[in-house]
């Protein structure tokens, strides 16, 4: 069954956000694959999900829930049939899997993730 696996905070400045969340929550956000525009604060052994701090493409702050699904193509097709609009087509995250984004009929942005360690 699909589940919320992590959340992305799209922020204007990832370094500033990382410093803020470290002071407030003690998160230790680290670069993902050497990319300083995408940091990840892992939840460790605590209950919860990892949080990605992502440089917002348009500079506007936004939180996006990411749902892990068995197959992105099937999920996007079902979402579109139900009234969604795909806003970012499927793309690879090397060694992790694939992701895509859509807006639901109310305009909420939702991310989907398909695990595939062979993704390139």
Structure, explained:
The protein is α+β, with helices and mostly antiparallel strands. The protein folds into two domains: 7-62, 2,3-Dihydroxybiphenyl 1,2-Dioxygenase, domain 1 (Roll); 69-120, 2,3-Dihydroxybiphenyl 1,2-Dioxygenase, domain 1. It is built from two helices and eight strands; from the N terminus they run E-H-E-E-E-E-H-E-E-E. It has helices spanning 14-25, 72-81, and strands at 3-11, 30-32, 35-41, 50-55, 62-68, 85-93, 97-103, 109-115. It has an eight-stranded mixed beta sheet with strand order 2-3-4-1-5-8-7-6. A hairpin with a 2-residue loop joins strand 2 (30-32) and strand 3 (35-41). It is globular. The protein starts with a strand and ends in a 5-residue tail after the last strand. The mean pLDDT is 94.
Note the topology.
Blueprint: E1 3-11, H1 14-25, E2 30-32, E3 35-41, E4 50-55, E5 62-68, H2 72-81, E6 85-93, E7 97-103, E8 109-115
Parallel strand pairs: 1-4, 5-8
Antiparallel strand pairs: 1-5, 2-3, 3-4, 6-7, 7-8
Beta strand count: 8
| Main beta-sheet strand count, sense and barrel state | 8 strands, mixed
* Average pLDDT taken over every residue: 94
Class by SSE composition: alpha+beta
3D shape:
globular
Query: Considering the protein shown, what is the CATH homologous superfamily of the largest domain?
Result: 2,3-Dihydroxybiphenyl 1,2-Dioxygenase, domain 1
Task: Provide the CATH architecture of the largest domain.
Answer: Roll
Helix content: 10-25%
Radius of gyration: 15 Å
Question: Can you tell me the CATH class of the largest domain?
Answer: Alpha Beta
CATH topology of the largest domain: 2,3-Dihydroxybiphenyl 1,2-Dioxygenase, domain 1
Beta-strand portion reads over 45%
Order the strands across the largest sheet as they lie in space: 2-3-4-1-5-8-7-6
Order of helices and strands: EHEEEEHEEE
């Amino acid at each position: 069954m699909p589940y919320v696996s992590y959340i992305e905070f799209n922020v204007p400045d990832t370094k500033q956000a990382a410093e803020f969340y470290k002071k407030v929550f003690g998160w230790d956000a680290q670069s993902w694959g050497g990319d300083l525009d995408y940091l990840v604060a892992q939840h460790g052994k605590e209950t919860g999900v990892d949080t990605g701090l992502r440089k917002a493409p348009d500079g506007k702050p936004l939180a996006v829930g990411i749902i892990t699904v068995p197959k992105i193509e099937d999920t996007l097709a079902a979402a579109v049939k139900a009234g969604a609009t795909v806003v970012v087509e499927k793309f690879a995250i090397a060694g992790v899997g694939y992701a895509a984004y859509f807006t639901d009929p109310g305009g909420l942005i939702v991310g989907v993730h398909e695990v595939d360690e062979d993704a390139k």
